[in-house]
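Review form for a predicted model. The reviewer records the input and the model, then writes brief findings.
Reviewer: anonymous (R2)
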Amino acid sequence: MTKRPNLLFLFSDQHAQRVAGCYGDGVALTPNLDALAARGVTFDNCYCPSPICVPSRMSMLTARHPSAQACWTNDDHLSTEAPTFAHALGAAGYRPTLAGRAHFMGPDQLHGYVQRFVGDHSPNHAGLPRHDLGVLEGANDPWSVGVIRSGRGQCAYQLKDQASTDAAVEHLHELGRRQRQGGAEPFAMTVGWILPHAPFVATAEDYAPFDGKVGPPDLAPPATGDEHAWIGWWRQNRELHERTDDEIMRARTAYYGLVMRLDRMIGEVLAALESAGLAEDTLVVYASDHGEQIGERGLWWKHTLYDESAKVPCVLAWPGRLPEGERRAAVTNLTDLTATMLDAVGAAPLPNAQASSFLDVARDGSTPWLDTTFSEYCTDAVPAWTGGMAVQQRMLRAGRYKLIYYHGYEPQLFDLEDDPREQHDLARSRRHQAVREQLLRQLLADWDPEAIARRMRERRREKDVLARWAGATLPPDQYRWPMTPEMNRLDDFDPNNT
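Model under review:
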């Protein structure tokens, strides 16, 4: 019987695909990711299931769309009965382990993992006091203060990520010791980082290599009257039109520093894998839960279905099993990545998965593949950062075309072959009406925005009860990393500039 391989899944938060040397960025310093790509396969068109954290992560776990499991927002619980990637690994004989970030909401903080180190920085339950970031309070969420309070300093997120890295390194060394003592069981470990998620604050050491080297955004905000109505509203509501050049450049520079710091932590984990003697039998996968706009189009964070927000890095390296230094243009999704990892280790596919393994595509770029995927962004009007507006939005990428549906607004249509930066909306082009209507039918065939809005209102009433319960009973966090306000600082903070 062939020995089952090890699996090491490296999963970050809010990493813009473009900001990596292996994706063509000449300023980014990502030597460890670049080396991983050089000995593996890089996917250029991988998308997230949703451009916000919880729904994207929960869809990655189950290989199902957010609407298929009513998990759209950052306070939605994934049903504890939902079979996940980790459950499938366990059923195949692995003991799936998680070090660090997961962003599970509710009482189930494992969802199939049998061992977890470090935990999350935020509460397990809505209704409990959120983590206090001190001087950086609010800078991690989509408020303009996140661009204003940026630059040199320190965020507790980096300290937590180092704790996750240290736990992963220690566990790999322990696995290596077991193997040297005759243990033959393969491992499956996920390492989750928060970086390079906002706040856009990097240590002076990480900021310095990029100071004066990071250029301004490539894409300027559209001229007045040329911008999509919802995007224009979002920009105004978040006060992004008021940001100064100094704020923008400071935040962008810090973001590059955060990406570099993440890469160094990835390097620590990969070095431990090597020194433990486990590298040859291990499939290593790197991805992120969604992108980051870092000022492109005058936008920040995620929350849109433009490629800066919806595309993610995706790299797979497997010695002797996958080619080295190759790229794939196939249109894929994190849900497909989950199906691929399960396929690679011989685990059974998840039931009701809305995804396909692209393992054969990774092996051979000429393998036929259906270049179609979806991403959706839905929220109710309750979180303060929504500006009181509920949205139901969905993207369909089909070959060269990408359609973005905004419920209550005109759609957008882009030809990514001729217009890879999505600068020319073809939705009103007479020549493209047949494409628009065909893609619109496909996008709405199994996705009803009105039904989603109703279900989200029902879910909100249910979640309100759970939040009130948590606030009244104060249930303990099962997996929580201790974070204090003093861990955060902003070296050039002016308290009068808020």
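Findings: DSSP finds 13 helices and 16 strands in the chain.
Further findings: The mean pLDDT is 96.
Recommendation: see findings above.
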